[in-house]
Amino acid sequence: MTMFLKSFAAAIVILAAAPAAQAQTQTQVVPASREQMKLTFAPVSRQVAPAVVNIYTKRVVRAAASPLFADPFFRRFFGDVPGMSQERVQRSLGSGVLIAADGTVVTNHHVIKDADEVTVVLSDRREFEASIVGSDERTDLAVLKIDGGKESFPTLVLGDSDAIEVGDVVMAVGNPFGVGQTVTQGIVSALARTNVGVSDVQSFIQTDAAINPGNSGGALVDLQGRLIGINTAIYSKDGGSNGIGFAIPTALVRQVAASIAKGGKVVRPWLGASGQAVTADLAQALKLPRPIGVLVNHIHGDSPAARGGLADGDIIVAVEGREVDDPEGLRFRLATLPIGGDAHLTVLRGGTEKAITVRLVAPPENPPRDKTDITGRNPFAGATLVNLNPALAEEIGINSGLSGVMIFAIKRGSVANRLGLQPGDMLLKVNERQVASVAEARKLLGVESPRWAITIKRNGEVMSLVLGG
Q1: Which single residue of 360, 409, 445, 460 has CA 20 to 30 Å from 345?
Q2: Contact 90/61 with Cβ under 8 angstroms?
């Protein structure tokens, strides 16, 4: 790295030393030595490579030997026929990064999802069986552990992803297409990309460093060899690199890894407020100089937001001094902060900037979920109902301000399934009676009726269904 910096500095000195008259005539200066011509990323690559690993997974699945054997009609009359199902092994590959000397590896959730076996291969080709410490689908991050006895593994220092800028030179390290460890170089193309659709908690670093299948879970590093992101997705029409890759910033990686290491799962802070992005039209109506922030339109009655003084109509423009442009950006900023601490929000209220401090707590299990399987002769037979609370809403990635009775799951072939009911539907009424809890739903559905009138809410749309009578 020192040689690279000296070479780069020498080139700058030569250009800077040219007389002003020569600069105006765009006179080019020929490098005077081999050292001045040398530009290399090799020192950074040597520093980073030992801490980036290859990950191989294996999953055993059972599949019907013939489509006929999977037919329910066939199974009904002939039952299980010897040899009707066969086992096959699915294999996949990816990359990972050692972030602690004890063998802690961070990678993508989708790399190890449903894996029966996970093998980690170091850059020196040694192989270790890995255990899954925890995984978080909403951020697409997972933490693995390999056991090297008393060995101290090489690691990457977690850099500050908030300090990077568009145009900074970066390097991506991973195992594309399984060819082996590969280093590519590019720049930071954009920051805070929130509409990628890869995960629920998102604010990605975009880079043009070549990233391909197999790079997932690998390292995106700066020229000091510090980890600034975990490569997770590409934009591609043919499966190859088109110069648009996305990495999860270390600001989120650090918090998720710490949460998984502590309890095996991720618990994100609960604000208790929701809203919408300020569009150009909204900005004009609100007399804002430009579209920015999240317009708050709902606050949970007993939440950190309410206790901190946040109000409907406030516009959250920054968290800890970092601008937010939409609800996804706000969710990301909060997810990078630890539970038990404070979040300092900058809001606009009536055109005046105001500072609000909220205490970060885990989303509460209130009311209790009361998960219940519905049986009997009613439209919801085969459905599982739950009381929606902030903790459950956070787990499944929906607005934590919602409450009521929700369909959590539905059995295939059940009455509820045949009627077209879906997980996520909110149950509002049964036979014109309001339903506020699973206990009330259980009571109303337990009464035999020749006619059923039910009202549900799906994706904000209220729908009614009448059966019988």
Answers
A1: 460
A2: yes
